[in-house]
Amino acid sequence: MQGIDAAIEAEVQAKLGALASQHQVTIISAIESGSRSWGFPSPDSDYDVRFVYAHASEWYIQLNPERDVIELPVNAVLDIGGWDVRKAMALANSGNSVIQEWMISPLVYREDAAQAAMLREMVASTFNARASFHHYSSMAKSMVAALDAPDIKLKRFFYISRATLSALWIAREHSMPTTVFPDLLQALTDDAAVLEAFQRQIRDKATKTEAETGVVDPLCLAFVREAYREVMATDIERLAPRREALGNEDLRAFLSVCQAVMPIPRLGSLVASSFAENSEAANGL
Q1: Pairing relationship of beta strands 47-54 and 78-84 according to DSSP bridges
Q2: Structure confidence at residue 79 (pLDDT)
Q3: Sign of CA dihedral 74, 88, 32, 12
Q4: Which of 50, 137, 187, 277 could form a disulfide with 167 if both were Cys (CB 3.0 to 4.6 A apart)?
Q5: Across the 285 residues of the chain, what is the mean pLDDT of every consecutive 10-residue run?
Q6: Domains in the chain, ordered, with CATH?
Q7: Are 123 and 91 in contact (CB under 8 A)?
Q8: Helix, strand or coil for residue 131?
């Protein structure tokens, strides 16, 4: 996979396979998030692996719902975690921008093509310009003061830039922005000098650790500041709220597709276990 170390990819695949087996789930889509997928990694950037998964249909009708997140302990190299598809759909309905980003990441570790395409279309249908604009503009606002520092971490500069330009895209186009920063930048300006200046910054960041500071090209700073001013001047009320909401029928339809390729769950053992627990409780055991 382009941009992913082969040994790391093999380790990620092994861990995803183990998680799917351990939790008896189907991984619908597993992607890389963070700076590596955004197009401005540092040499020591970790790998942010995110995935959406589904249980067999019977899992969703338990009396006491189980946890809807699967994750591994984070270390210096790997950060692996995923959401159950019902949680992913509910978050999409609430205007969550993160699940929107996961569904369009350019770096995909594994996916079931048909299921991923179906979920991608469902999540895209819930896009909420107002909520996503608020998400990105709030991120930018919380970090923008760092642009005035005499020395700034390049990681921080690119996080400010990505948040600002994502909000700017939504303000202008009323749609979900690409997660690939160079593509986003190119869609917002045709100024060759600005584009080249950002490419130099990306190349510079690729040689520095995430903790290192650096000098930001004045052209880049000026462009981001001007974009930020336009974002802050945007009337959020003119942006459209959620397009559509996913419902129970959408979840059932999706699970029926998953069920066709998933192993039959051990429903009998679940019921038997529950019966045994209730019997022990009734007998005072």
Answers
A1: parallel
A2: 98
A3: positive
A4: 137
A5: 91 98 97 96 96 95 94 97 98 97 98 96 97 98 94 95 98 97 98 98 94 93 98 96 91 89 45 41 45
A6: 6-128+243-282 (3.30.460.10), 129-238 (1.20.120)
A7: no
A8: helix
